[in-house]
Amino acid sequence: MAPMASLAPVAPQAATPFAVLARRTVTACAVAAVLGAAAAPAAFATPAAGSAPATASKKLPGGLYGTKDPQYDGVWRQSLALLAQDTVGVRPATSAVDWLTGQQCADGAFAAFRADPATACDAKTMRDTNQTGAAVQALAALGGHGDAVKKAVAWLKSVQNGDGGWSSMPGSPSDANSTAVVIGALASAGGKPETVTSEKGGRTPYEGLLAFRLGCDAKEEERGAFAFQPQKGALPPNADATAAAALGALGKGFVVEPANKHADAKVKPLTCKDGQGSDDGKGDPGQAAEGADAYLVAQLDKNGQHLLSAMPGAEKQPDVGNTADAVLALAAGGHGAAAQQPLEWLEKNAADWAERNGPAAYAQLVLVAHATGADPRSFGGTDLVAALNGTGPEPAGSAEPSATPEKDTEDGEGGIGLWWVIGIGLAIGAGIGFLLSGRNKKNGR
């Protein structure tokens, strides 16, 4: 988050997640823009810091988190903010929840931002699976939005590609990040991702996701990693895509139950015995997640307990967002001990990054703290919860989360409970993970 602040939709060409940062330039992408634009920057983007913001001269809508142009990441950052607040027992403002639900199209999809929700979505509305998947996770967690969740899930299923996966923009080739986000959404809504098969091909989301894994044909040090998308017939290992895929392969969304930080079970690198390292997408998702975690641990150890930026010219720069994504993935895999050192690195180095990147970044760190058993109200000296609350409308209240909160299900039953292109300039100055920016990277490890 997924990760963490990488969030952003993808675009039509082969995308590059920049931690999902600048995913594709706005037009190039519009979809691709978000993901690929940044030359592989972000798949889930966060605040768009690009040029000529559509809302630059307009007052931002009430209830929206953040002060930057929401054109490419409005729904994404709003969803992560609401999800993070719910996770730590904060009851979001009604206006914030209403803003999110008001962004949904009649067919169930969400675009990154609709300036005038009263105007119906049409064929030109850029519907986005990443934004929709994030919204599903937030609304399912909050409870009471069963109809909206059900419609969104139905739309996601309707745009599944024949290979079993998803792209950020319907009609484009699948990518690992978007597929992982949708898997998380399906699971969060109470569904079983493994039962969802593509109309053409009959493939499951897990088959689609594992098709991006580097198996026994790859170099030994790259085995277990995931690529964002194939490039020139090859699968380049991508750390952000690997972190996203590790969550997706376990059928998990952005909220991960706290891992035992004292667990000393070693991560197990992908083995080429008994077909576990097959490259046909038919492998075991759990083993694939384990192999992905092993790849991430190797990269973290290699770089001093943080991941490096994939941005051209900034390859030696620490990537805070992707490091957060990796920590979340390790916690999801039950590797609490392995997550501790990179977590400590985040506690020392993430505050300024989060302040620059706003609500999605704070939310990502809150989710990381929750997953690792750290205190989000004292994270390296920063009260992440207060900082996140300060980026949006005043919360309606705060209470300890219920031990067994009801959640919306895919069938619409629910109770009460709780990657886009960030600008290229922003992307270059700060690392952004798949949760923050939207997910989508191209190269990079």
UniProtKB/TrEMBL annotation:
Entry-linked Gene3D superfamilies: 1.50.10.20
Annotated stretches, region: Disordered: 270-289, 388-412
Transmembrane segments: 417-436
Matches recorded under InterPro entries: Terpenoid_cyclase/PrenylTrfase (IPR008930)
Signal sequence coordinates: 1-45
Keywords: Membrane, Signal, Transmembrane, Transmembrane helix
Name listed for the protein in its UniProt record: Terpene cyclase/mutase family protein
Naturally occurring in which organism (per UniProt): Streptomyces halobius
Phylogenetic classification of the source organism: Bacteria, Bacillati, Actinomycetota, Actinomycetes, Kitasatosporales
